Amino acid sequence: MTVLLTPFKYIARLIAEGIMAVGEIAWLLIQIIKRVPLVRKNPELTIRQMVNIGVSSIPLLFITSLFTGAVAAVQSEYQFRGLIPDKFIGTAVAKMVLIELGPILTALVLAGRVGSALAAEIGSMREKEELAAYEVLNLDPLRYLAMPRFLTFLIMVPCLTIMSSFLAIIGGWIVCLVGLDITTYTYFTGVQYLFENMDLFSGLIKSVVFGIIIFSLGYYHGLNAGAGAKGVGQATMKTVVSACVSLLVFDLFIALLMFS
Amino acid sequence: MPNVIIDPNDVMIELKHLRKVFGKQVVLQDINLDIRRGETMVVIGQSGGGKSVILKHMIGLLQPTGGEVSIDGITISTPDFFDTRTIRKRMGMVFQMGALFDSMSTGENIAFALREHNPNLSEEQIQNIVTEKLELINLKPEFRSKMPSELSGGMRKRVALARAIALNPEVILYDEPTTGLDPITSDVINDLILDMQRKLHVTSVVVTHDMASAFKVADRIAMLYGGHIIQTGTVDEIKNSTNPYVQQFITGQRELPTGLEDGD
Ligand SMILES: Nc1ncnc2c1ncn2[C@@H]1O[C@H](COP(=O)(O)OP(=O)(O)O)[C@@H](O)[C@H]1O
Ligand SMILES: [Mg+2]
């Protein structure tokens, strides 16, 4: 009996913990959103965060996006060879990138790069009692620490997604010129063909949601990090794992909502 | 020895039957402690004994599981009541590792709370206060541009003290101010603690296991053991204590001294 019950208990506990976490994160987000109007009093705090995130993630996104676009072009050419005109390569790349690959890959890369860094930063601030120092000085950590970072993720994730999608289309173009014998004219005619604002818009909506997900999980796991370097390390790991799962689940969810 | 007049009946901080439990771990059993206005009270005890937990109750970072904390006659926390915002304005805290804001310069660390809480102060006034606080801890005004990562352990503690006094507190809490410092730097910190008491007339609570520091800065010493305050007294009373646990601690022995009555 007990042998059978243990895995159930384990799963039940995981679900209970998950529900608690969702509740806490929702409460945290509400508290943070209430403080957003205060951003005009210390805009420099938010701007500094935006610069930090840009600097630390643009080089990596540059490479991943170019290669993603290039691979998308190569695969489309291979799958469609002899079936449809070459210009549809550009169409396929643009559609894939704008609707799906751009937002989700950017979000996954950012979860690994800046979501984990957020958890580590908040976790070590807690460990070194910097968070307590804010409290003791009657400075609200949600206002001075959480809100600027929340706004940064909310704004920067969509911006970086646009940059990333653009770079992916460029990546497809480069590989067409160099490896696939497709002209610039043919490729970009394809990119424009069947272009709909809705594609761009849906990608942006998704990336806003993704930005909130990455921020929430990073901040939450940072706040709840265990003691010492080990605790901080685990918090970053939990952030990346939970963010990857949540991002993909939400991606499917949003796709179903928007396209079916 | 301090040259401040202290009225034994003028209590600034009062812990009454303070009890704190984390999960199943009982850290503080029943703490009773009065700290008089203007005095420096040193709480000694082993690492992990709950000294930081006591300080955090005084400044409202933790809520008691039992008992009551009052500051200047005002109850700030009980198990069902927790109002710390107003009282914190009157208190400053120097954290064990300094807890400086790593992304801000030394000057910004001192100025930040000042600016946020006093929007009507001009930038010039703020910078003057920063200079004044740096002088109080014997640092040159140029020091303000240094980042925390450029500072040694002793300097971090000093800047943390400057930040704690930026808002002119009446009470300063020090969490292990000399731990991890060499003896000479430790003594610089001891002198600063005495300076604050004389120049700013603050009430101070110092938590430490550094006996040299305790004997130098204390008006009175309280010994924490097993979740209780087992003795409170002046430096001489503690030095001459017959309580074996106090003797063991202040002389730094691994085993209880024999021949003394068990003071439990
Ligand atoms: N916020 C907390 N949550 C759980 N346990 C804590 C917390 N703060 C302190 N403790 C525990 O309380 C005990 C006493 O800690 P502390 O007051 O830091 O000791 P010290 O006397 O060295 O300052 C330790 O065992 C510590 O693990
Ligand atoms: Mg401690």
What are the salient characteristics of this protein?
heterodimer, A: 260 residues, mainly alpha, 8 helices, 0% strand, B: 264 residues, alpha/beta, 6-stranded mixed sheet, 5-stranded antiparallel sheet, 27% strand, globular, binds adenosine-5'-diphosphate, binds magnesium ion
Descriptive overview:
- The complex is a heterodimer of chains A (about 260) and B (about 260).
- With about 260 residues, chain A is an all-alpha fold.
- Chain A has one domain.
- Helices cover about 85% and strands about 0% of the residues of chain A.
- In chain A, helix 3 packs parallel to helix 7, helix 5 packs across helix 6 (about 185-190) and helix 5 (about 140-180) packs across helix 7 (about 195-225).
- The model of chain A has no long low-confidence stretch (mean pLDDT about 90).
- Chain B has helices spanning about 50-60, 85-90, 105-115, 125-135, 155-165, 185-200, 210-215, 235-240, 245-250, and strands spanning about 10-20, 25-35, 40-45, 65-70, 75-80, 80, 90-95, 170-175, 205-210, 220-225, 230-235.
- In chain B, the strands form two sheets. Chain B has a six-stranded mixed β-sheet with strand order 7-8-9-3-10-11, with helices on both faces. Chain B has a five-stranded antiparallel β-sheet with strand order 2-1-4-5-6, with helices on one face.
- In chain B, strand 5 (about 75-80) and strand 6 (about 80) form a beta hairpin.
- Chain B is globular and about 60 Å long.
- The interface of A and B includes residues 129, 133 and 139 of A.
- The structure holds adenosine-5'-diphosphate and magnesium ion.
- The site of magnesium ion has 5 residues of chain B, from helix 1.
Brief summary of the model shown:
The complex is a heterodimer of chains A (260) and B (264). Chain A is mainly α and 260 residues long.
The CATH superfamily of one domain in chain B bears the name: P-loop containing nucleotide triphosphate hydrolases
Give the overall silhouette of chain A. globular
Q: Give the total of beta strands of chain A.
A: 0
Cα distance spanning the termini of chain A: 45 Å
Strand order of the largest sheet of chain B: 7-8-9-3-10-11
Cα radius of gyration of chain B in angstroms: 19 Å
Question: Averaging pLDDT over every residue of chain B, what do you get?
Answer: 91
Strand content of chain B: 25-35%
